[in-house]
Specification:
Strand content: 5-15%
Largest sheet: 3 strands, antiparallel
Order of helices and strands: HHHHEEEH
Shape: elongated
Distance between the termini: 84 Å
């Protein structure tokens, strides 16, 4: 009786029906990779052994049985010889950074205005006393003055 139960659990048809039912009920599982999908199905009690799952996976990947498996993150087909920069010169990415964790080591300073030039990846940081708009604008004006641009604000 114990052997009959094990044979039924390893039955490929029963395994396939259980997996397809689970994928129908949880469509996002179909986007998981092979190992993560196996772990999820095993945790739910749908698949008992790795061999049964591998058999279903190979049958699924075959052209005649359920179609091929599509990779979500496939490598690009064409490689470019150079990187294309779509930013105008002197374009910056600007952000306010809070580093409350290091306030003691930074002598009470915990906020910075960080500016990164997109083309050269040069970073500039200015100390902020707070996060209010006038303080951020004042630091931005200092940056424009240091960079040689006329502050327009």
């Amino acid at each position: 009786m114990g052997k009959g139960k094990k044979a039924a659990a390893d039955d490929p048809l029963e395994t396939a029906v259980g997996i397809l039912t689970a994928l129908g009920a949880n469509p996002t599982w179909d986007l998981l990779g092979k190992d993560k999908l196996f772990k999820r199905l095993k945790a739910e009690g749908i698949v008992k052994t790795r061999a049964a799952f591998d058999g279903w996976w190979q049958a699924r990947a075959a052209k005649g049985a359920g179609g091929e498996v599509h990779e979500v993150f496939a490598r690009p087909q064409k490689r470019f010889k150079y990187a294309r920069i779509a930013a105008s010169p002197y374009s910056f990415q600007i952000d306010v950074i809070r580093m409350d964790r290091y306030k003691r080591q930074n002598k009470g300073v915990s906020r910075f205005l960080l500016l990164v030039e997109i083309e050269s990846r040069k970073a500039f940081a200015y100390v902020l006393k707070g996060e209010t708009v006038p303080e951020v604008l004042q630091a931005y004006k200092r940056f424009l003055k240091d960079a040689g641009h006329e502050p327009f604000l």
